[in-house]
Amino acid sequence: MNNKTGKSIDASKNTKRTEHKSLTRELNQSINVTEKELELDEAIVQRHFDGTMEEVTREAYEEALKHVPANPSREDMIAEAVWRMNALHFPKDIVDDFQKTGVIETVIDDFMIYPLTDKDLNHIRFLEKSNCLVYAAIYSHAVMGTLISYLVVTDQSEDWIYDRNMLKYNEMKAYVCSYEDPSIADFGTIIVRSHPEGMLLRIY
User: With helix as H, strand as E and coil as C, how does the chain read?
Assistant: First the structure.
């Protein structure tokens, strides 16, 4: 029985691993990436599902909690977003502009930067009403259509500690929605790969 169970579990893991790789390749299909880069992306995604990310200890969390505002203002949220943008190697001029205004003006799509569309702006207004600050937007393309991922800082400052830890592993909190189907939208975690000049590619 144990052997049968073990085989079943292994088969399930292999199926999920195949699904993860398939989606990672699908999200990369519209751009010119090498096989080596795809393998790197797959390894990053697999680390997430293998559960090898180092968790924040209770002691570390309680210590870090002393240094975040209990009731963050918009200025506090901008400062947190700036920290994350620097961690992701955004260009200095983009970070400086965001630090002044707390507003993004562009979206990243296949390593190119484009102005926000009216639909993007509507999504961002919705997120602001939900007490979220958007500091980046990424388009990705899959069989299901175009997905837009808005990287956000929420007003739940006690979560910032976990968010920062996730960032070390290429994972970040985002609001993801379908460009074609407004009913497909939710908060969750995405996995990205950071490239020079602040270019972000969603790999899961």
Answer: CHHHHHHHHHHHHHHHHHHHHHHHHHHHCCCCCCHHHHHHHHHHHHHHHHCCCCCCCHHHHHHHHCCCCCCCCHHHHHHHHHHHHHHCCCCHHHHHHHHHHCCCCEEEECCEEEECCHHHHHHHHHHHHCCEEEEEEEEEEECCEEEEEEEEEECCHHHHHHHHHHHCCCEEEEEEEECCCCCCEEEEEEEEEEEHHHEEEECC
Output the pTM of the full model: 0.75
pLDDT digits (tens, 9 = 90+) for 150-188: 999 999 999 999 999 888 888 899 999 998 888 899 999
